[in-house]
Amino acid sequence: MAAILRSITTSTSRYEERADGVIVQRLLTTRTQTITDARENTSAFVRIAGGHPRRVLIDIRIIRALQAGVREHYADPELAKWCSAVALLVATPGGHQFGRYYMSMNPGPLPVLMFTDEAQAIEWLHRETSDQPTFAGSAAL
After folding, report:
1. Tens of pLDDT along 79-106?
2. 31: which of 9, 39, 41, 118 lies 20 to 30 Å off by Cα?
3. Closest residue by Cα to residue 98 from 120, 131, 66
4. Are strands 22-27 and 13-18 parallel, antiparallel or unpaired?
């Protein structure tokens, strides 16, 4: 496992920048996520991305409920510009549902795939973006 260079914790998630350049978002709570939470998460992600498209693992294994508008917020095409590939780590029916929604809202060139195994997700992110430089350590927090 790659070392964690820095992290940002919000009210619902923790963002970790790994030494291999992957950004990991881990949900920390099963409470209903609000649009305010989603905006806080988006801000944290943009900060840790450091102005460059990054490989992203979104761990939504404990996702339960989202307030109206949250799914749409996360599917905003503006967020995709900060991603070179997205792996969704799922375990529940709600996670699979959100993953399918997210994938359907991002039909463009951004590679997005769902996984149930974290190691396989990280491996795919590296294969999918092998020609992309990593920017580990570049985020100004």
Report:
1. 888 899 999 999 988 778 877 877 787 6
2. 118
3. 66
4. antiparallel
